[in-house]
Amino acid sequence: MATIIKIKRTTGATAPSGLNQGEMAYVYDTSNTNAGAGGNGHRLFIGDPTSTSNTAKLIGGEYFVNLLDHSHGVLTASSALIADSNKKLDNLKVDNLDLNGNTLSSTTGDIILGATGDIDANTNTIKNVVDPSNAQDAATKAYVDSQVTGQDLDATTDSGTIDIDLDSETLSVVGGEGIDTSATGTTITIAGEDATTSNKGIASFASADFGVSSGAVSLSDTVVKTVASGSGSATPSSHGFTIAGTANEIETSATGSTVTVGLPDNVTVGNNLTVTGNLTVNGTTTTLSTTNTSVEDTLLELNAGAGSNANDSGILIERGSTGDNAIFMWDESADVFTLGTTTATAASTGNISITVGELIANINGSNSTLTNIPNSALTNSSITVSDGSNSTATALGGTITFTAGEGMDVTESSGTITFAGEDATSSNKGIASFSSDNFTVSSGAVTVTTVDGGTY
Q1: Phi/psi zone of residue 357: left (φ > 0), alpha (ψ -120 to 50 degrees), beta?
Q2: In 140-260, where does DSSP find H-type helix?
Q3: In sequence order, which residues have a C-beta less than 8 Å from that of residue 334 and are 6 or more positions away?
Q4: How far apart (Å, rounded) are the C-alpha atoms in residues 260 and 234?
Q5: Are 302 and 313 in contact (CB under 8 A)?
Q6: Quick one: CA dihedral 123, 129, 132, 135, positive or negative?
Q7: Cβ atoms within 10 A of the Cβ of 46, count?
Q8: DSSP label at 38?
Q9: Which of 44, 126, 152, 294 is deepest in the core (most CB within 10 A)?
Q10: In Å, how far are 43, 52, 438, 453, 454 from 26, measured between CA atoms?
Q11: What is the full DSSP assignment across 126-173?
């Protein structure tokens, strides 16, 4: 049987009092004696949880619904304002102002702006403005143009005279080569440009190095400069000096006005050599005759640039008369790493013969994968599963299966097995919870409670 829940109600027009928290009541006011604005009729109330005297709190009802029941976007008397799907109303009236479409009008008197603030047309045009009659009236372009009489500005230069019609022409002040012009506010500035090797302009000249007469500049005969180097300096003789190289280190040559400084084909560096960029050696063999070689790089690439590879690659250790050379290499034909001894040298290529050696090392199983190890080689080769009375041993590599009964689910994710109760349904036993407001539960038996608020 279905449960019917009834709230408090009255056909009169009196608001309820003494409602408990969460308790509701409805005022039908069937005679419509108090159903207007500020009344109680056609309204829904609920107990106020913040009141110590259980005061009824108005939360809705037919009165408020009727205020909203009209076409959206249409201004309706004695109803709420509801915008249409375009967020618009067809008309809006405030006191004497009537906003309808693109027209703002007054039902009586003028439209007066507030005491502060400006009208910003936002780059749009204000149209149909009458000519001003008072000192503070706005003026139109046509009115201003009619008040300006035609006048000319006459200008005389070294090579001619011009006149500028102020109504229709603009005076341009343009600089030639070596001259710049600029304007700021009401000021025009004409200035000389600084001289460069490609542009004529103004310049100043040091009296110690130049002679200047009537604008003509000449180089002083007494100009002597010192050329400094990392370990000394040289003073040019008659404005000239010699650039010399060092045997097997630097070579120089001169052609016309060009001096070329470079390295010879075979370079000898007497002391330390530091290369701050990349070092590329394009030769057949690179020989290092040092006691120890220190490499700061974190990766060492062998066989660089190979499009494909048929050669074994690795690190070869020369042992001299002690025995065959030691080698750690990638066996290209077998696709594996190997180590041992070999008669091969640094000049060997292709498939290198190797006598496999022994590797002594600690292997951490948490960081590597060991394959092809039979269970017979392991001390603990199986897992035993028990329910307390029965047990079964399953070999490593085998499968243990967990099966769920009715009302249970078994899932596995990333090595974790989860047992969970299923939610109860009308056709499946499972777990469930019951609200004490609507149900009574005793020893697993569930009954439904009937709730009725009554009348007042």
Answers
A1: beta
A2: 141-147
A3: none
A4: 19
A5: yes
A6: negative
A7: 19
A8: T
A9: 44
A10: 6, 21, 23, 11, 12
A11: P--PPPP-STTS---HHHHHHHPPP-EEEEEETTEEEEEETTT-----
8-state DSSP, 70: S
Per the listing, tokens 């080689």 go with 377
Chain-centroid distance, C-alpha 402: 48
How many residues are listed for the chain in this entry?
456
Compute the average pLDDT of residues 283-300.
83
Instruction: Supply the pLDDT for residue 151.
Output: 64
From the list 433, 404, 434, the residue with the least C-alpha distance to 420 is 404
Mean pLDDT of 64-73: 86
Query: How far is 218 from 206, CA to CA, in rounded Å?
Result: 11
Mean residue pLDDT of the chain comes to: 81
What are the distances in angstroms from CA 27 to CA 19, 37, 58, 140? 13, 14, 11, 64
The residue ranges of every structural domain in the chain are 313-356
Token pair listed for 385: 């599963």
**CA–CA distance, 303 with 41 (Å, rounded to integer):** 95
Given this model, what pLDDT does residue 239 score?
55
Pairing state of beta strands 187-192 and 210-213?
unpaired
Residue 240: which pLDDT band, with cuts at 50, 70 and 90?
low
Instruction: State the pTM of this model.
Output: 0.30
